Amino acid sequence: MSNSSITITVKFFAAFSEAYSVSEQTWEFPMLTPVSQVLDRAIAQYPQLEPWRDRTRFGINLEFVSPDTILQNGDEVVLIPPVSGG
User: Fold this and answer.
1) Gap between the Cα atoms of 31 and 29, Å rounded
2) Helical H runs in 1-86?
3) 33-43 per-position pLDDT tens digit
4) Exposed, middle or buried: residue 79 (CB in 10 Å: 0-12, 13-18, 19+)?
5) How much is the pTM?
6) Sequence-distant (≥ 6) Cβ neighbours of residue 61 within 8 angstroms
7) Rounded CA gap, 58 and 11, in Å?
8) Measured at the alpha carbon of residue 79, what is the angle toward residues 47 and 30, in degrees to the nearest 5?
9) Strand arrangement of the beta sheet that strand 5-12 belongs to
């Protein structure tokens, strides 16, 4: 990791874990990156996730956050699409 980048852990649920076939990955981003860029990267890698763009919520370190929240080195990010169950 360089001084101008951060490393985060991304946890996947529902459609995201199905697309990635894993429950988490470690990603690197430039400093001052908003959490919304995590979703942008996920969709860039798996375009079939595009329908979830406007319906996904973000969590950082077990707290819901807004899309413009700036990531910090070591953050644990979750992408939370709407789910239903019964």
Assistant:
1) 6
2) 15-20, 36-45
3) 999 999 999 99
4) buried
5) 0.91
6) 75, 76
7) 11
8) 80
9) 24-30, 5-12, 76-80, 57-60, 63-65
